[in-house]
Design a protein that fits this description.
globular
């Protein structure tokens, strides 16, 4: 069931669809390189939502990838909703892990303050 929450002056909604920074991490060195705090300047820009492996340069790639999107939010409770990810993900906010999800192609969300 898809749950839509309408925007209200007390509950703003912001879609994060669009261009995100993107880096493949075939050696799984992202944490050692500090990717959870920010991707390198050499990161590509890719549209989200999309399937990264559908592009010719990544056809057949099944490794780790990192996405980054910078947003500014007011203080308060935040609901971060994902339409789906491929297999599993770890989500960071300001370099701190806020949650993990396992299970491809299903919606999930994190609620935090």
């Amino acid at each position: 069931m898809k749950r839509f929450i309408t925007e209200h002056r007390k509950r703003r909604a912001l879609s994060l669809d669009g261009l995100w920074q993107f880096v493949c991490d075939p050696e799984e060195q992202g944490i050692a390189l500090g990717y959870e705090k920010g991707l390198p300047a050499s990161a590509e820009r890719r549209f989200v939502p999309s399937v990264f492996a559908a592009t010719p340069d990544l056809l057949g790639y099944e490794g780790v990838c990192w996405y980054e999107r910078r947003v500014f939010m007011e203080k308060g409770t935040v609901r971060l909703h994902f339409g789906a990810v491929m297999t599993d993900c770890t989500v960071y906010l300001d370099g701190e892990e806020i949650g993990k999800h396992y299970g491809g192609f299903c919606e999930f969300e994190f609620v935090f303050k």
